[in-house]
TrEMBL record:
Tagged with keyword Nuclease: no
Enzyme class, spelled out: transferase
Keywords in alphabetical order: Glycosyltransferase, Transferase
Residue ranges constituting the Glycosyltransferase 2-like domain according to the UniProt record: 5-137
Gene3D superfamilies to which the protein is assigned, alphabetical: Spore Coat Polysaccharide Biosynthesis Protein SpsA, Chain A
Name the UniProt record assigns to this protein: Glycosyltransferase
Pfam families the record matches: Glycos_transf_2
PANTHER family membership: GLYCOSYLTRANSFERASE, UDP-GLCNAC:BETAGAL BETA-1,3-N-ACETYLGLUCOSAMINYLTRANSFERASE-LIKE PROTEIN 1
Enzyme Commission (EC) number: 2.4.-.-
Length: 296
């Protein structure tokens, strides 16, 4: 079974090269890698890929900078296999990623999203588990007894309590993700919104115990720079209000309750409040307090 690995690129080339090397190291050869250069402008990238001279690798450059959402859309448009992943340009596949996905799909052909086991690494590639990762681990359903398939209210409510998915590690059924557009007006919660929409459309989420992916954390990520100014949480409040309404319309009581309380998100805002005060970020502190103690 052919498998598409889509790799939008903007940033430090050395991380991209490491990501590409991890694809080349797969223990399954039935894959195609598409590198989408979002107008970063570093000649090292096309030169490096051309030197590889591998017919399984395609290099494309966007006509204009598309950003996160735009590159995800283009990745879906360009994919031709039934299943695909949109990999982060600084993340790393373990050698068993593609083969594990292929076995999972063969065993569970009805699933729409697959979440494998994930390790997180720092800028130097060392395995690091910060507080967010520990919380994700606690919230993630237990797969020690084997893979789990989650659907409906049960799946959505678990994610609305706290998003324990690692977006760049996910494999999607192309037909499903192509029919589920990003919600307009969001940056940080784009990924959660898409997954919840797939679940509300009857989609199935498969969780695997096998660790196949390394997710790299940087302090300068889009979500982290929006933390202290509170803009991330304003966006989350808006999304949770929409999710609550959608859940209520479907009669999904657990999901509506989880969206209404958004406990993990509140706790996150509260934990950041001392930093906002320390940095004398008055507006950010107000937004954090409102998010932590306010109502939708």
């Amino acid at each position: 079974m052919s498998f598409d690995i889509m790799l939008p690129f903007w940033g430090e080339p050395k991380y991209l090269f490491e990501a590409v090397e991890s694809v080349l190291a797969q223990d399954s050869e039935d894959w195609h890698l598409t590198v989408i250069d979002d107008r970063y402008g570093d000649p090292q990238v096309p030169q490096y890929l051309a030197a590889l001279d591998d017919p399984r690798i395609t290099y494309l450059e966007n006509d204009e900078n598309l950003g996160v959402a735009g590159n995800f859309r283009r990745s879906i448009e360009l994919a031709t296999s039934d299943y695909l992943m949109v990999m982060g340009c600084d993340d790393v596949l373990l050698p068993n990623y593609v083969s594990t996905m292929q076995r999972a799909i063969a065993t569970n052909p009805q699933v729409d999203i697959i979440q494998p086991g994930v390790e997180t690494i720092d800028s130097a590639g060392k395995i690091r588990w910060n507080l967010a990762d520990r919380i994700k681990y606690k919230l993630r359903p237990n797969t020690s007894a084997g893979p789990q398939i989650l659907t409906g209210d049960n799946a959505a409510s678990r994610l609305l309590v706290g998003d324990w998915l690692y977006w760049p590690s996910l494999t999607f059924r192309r037909e499903t993700i192509a029919a589920t557009p990003f919600r307009e007006g969001y940056e940080v919660v784009l990924d959660l919104g898409v997954v919840i929409d797939i679940l509300m459309g009857g989609g199935k989420l498969l969780l695997l115990p096998e660790v196949t992916f390394r997710y790299r954390r940087h302090d300068e990520s889009v979500s982290s720079v929006k933390l202290l100014d509170g803009s991330r949480f304003a966006e989350e409040r808006s999304y949770f209000a929409q999710a609550r309404q959608a859940a209520q319309a479907r009669g999904w009581k657990k999901s509506a309750r989880a969206a209404n309380t958004y406990l993990t998100s509140r706790a996150h805002a509260l934990a950041l409040l001392p930093q906002a005060i320390k940095h004398r970020n008055k507006n950010g502190a107000k937004t954090l307090v409102r998010h932590a103690f306010g109502r939708l």
